[in-house]
Each structure stands twice: as C-alpha cells, then as structure tokens.
Amino acid sequence: MNQAQALPPEDSLAPQALPLLLKAAGDPLRLDILRVMKRDSFGVLELCQLLECKQSGMSHHLKVLTNAGLLTSRREGNSIFYRRAYLAPANPLRELQQQLFATLDVEPLPGDLNEKLSELRRERALASRDFFADNAHKFRAQQDLIASYPVYAEQVGQLLANTPLPDRHLALEVGPGEGEFLPALAKRFKQVVALDNASKMLEQARQRAQEQRLSNVEFILGDTRRLKEHKVLADCIVVNMVLHHTPSPADIFQDLSGVLVPGGALLVTDLCRHEQTWAREACGDLWQGFEPDDLSLWAGDAGLKEGQSVYFALRNGFQIQLRQFFKRSSSDPLSPV
User: Fold this and answer.
1) Cα gap 204→149, rounded to integer Å
2) Is the pLDDT reported for residue 137 higher than 60?
C-alpha cells in the first residue's frame, strides 16, 4: 500500500481523502467486497472465489479500498486478510464511512453469494478441525493456536486508543490471564483493577505487573458480582477472550454495566460462533463462541449502546470479534440499540 496516498487517521482532513473515499465507493464490485465483510475478514484468494474476480483485479480493488480508509489488512502467516476499517471518532470522514457501511448492510446478499460464503466457512471449519487434530495433545499450544494474545493485541490497543471516554481515572480488566494487557491499561489510566476468579492466574498477572513495575494496579480475586462490593466504578472495562469461559455471559454484561460510569466504555474481545467442539474439553470452553447479535442483545438489555465492531478471521479457521459498547447517559435518547 502506498502510505502517501492512504487516508490519514488524524482529525485533520487531507485534500485527497474525500475523493479517495468517494472513488472507492463508486464501483459495484468494491461495494460487494465491503458488503461481504460485514462480519468477517477474507484473504485475496477467498474474495476472488466469492466474487468471481481474477487475483490481479481483486488486488487492485483491495488497494483502492485500503487507501480510502475503508479496509485494513493484517498478516496471518503467509497470507494477508482484509477487513473493514474503523476511523477514530475525531476523523472528519468517520460518519460518512459508518453511514456507508450501514447503508450496505441494509441490503441482503444475493442467494448465490450467501451459498458461497457458507461453503467458504465450511472449508475453514474443516481446515481448523484437520489442523488441530494433529495438536490435540498439546494443551497450552492448543490455546495459543486458537487465539493467543499477540493475535489480537494490536487491534484491541487500537480500539482502546480510539475510544472516547468521560475520564481516564479507572480501568477494569476482567480475566487478565497472565497480565499481558495490563501495561497498556496502566499507561493510559490513573488506576487499574484486575479481576479474576482463579487465584493462580491472578498471581501470574500480579507477577507480570511487578516485573513491569506497574504501581497503579489493584488485584481482586472473585467474579463480576463482587465488583460493587469493592466499590469499583470504571471509565473503561476490557474483557479479552473471557466470555466463552463464563456460565452466563448475559449476567456478565449486567454486572459490568452496573459498575460503568455514564458514558463509560466496555470493550469485548471474543470468538465468533464456531463448531469446534473439541475446544470444550481441550481448553475448558463453556461456549463455542458467540453470534455478534448475541452480544448486541445482551448489551442492549444491560443498558449499553453499541459503538464500533471489528471482525477478523484467523488462519486456523476461527474468527474474532472486537466489540465496543457505551453506558447510556441521562441525555441519551431511549431509542433501540
């Protein structure tokens, strides 16, 4: 990608930014590319298969869309996957970009394209099953191969950086694991609370915080029901790859909404719905990921409104969703989420 022509993330509008976006959106095939990326990400060859386009032509269209700020890419092994981009709230083209996506999402995909998408997802699932069948004896390796922290760390950090917040007094991370995301939170917030119901995992997170010399992190042993007891009131809550381990994800949304300040943000990273049943026994998963609408419904019921959503596929066939929700304030209209 020619960085000199790419859409800038800053709050100032480059002279070529609007023409680039309008040109990118003026081609029917490019609109179809954006349409199929509503809840997934794809490699070049996959898009060629879905939209019956030669690789050279598809690569050109993807470059145009990327330079216009409508797509972003990430490398998985030897492959590059493309997904919808999201602009920072201060970017002058953000509203136009999001309105374009919303307009595209109203129109359903043609039946034949839906069939191709279903077949592609079946192929991904088969590849995933074959891949993990050779690694079933490696518990730790299996967890890492599903979605280790480095796979989604950059995207979560970018989403956090672009999330408007009422204040940066306190951040809460639910299920910090080995504490890999705590340094990023400790750098951005005056105080950080790490909550985990597994004492050994909490101790690992504590050790990492000590190694990183993080002096503003507090550790609480327990589940989300204990947060009010500890009088936690957060400006931002981060939940990375935790929901599929919890007995009642809907209750988690209710608990977390109750400890968010008005206008505060909840950032959730988790697996999309999959059919890899082995993950239940190998990794202790209670749920095989979630449909995006599940998270939207639980958030809405908990008084949260939707923000940005980012979806991307992994080379092993799994898909990850990054979701942003906000606690409604008294000035928010009581419209459906």
Assistant:
1) 15
2) no
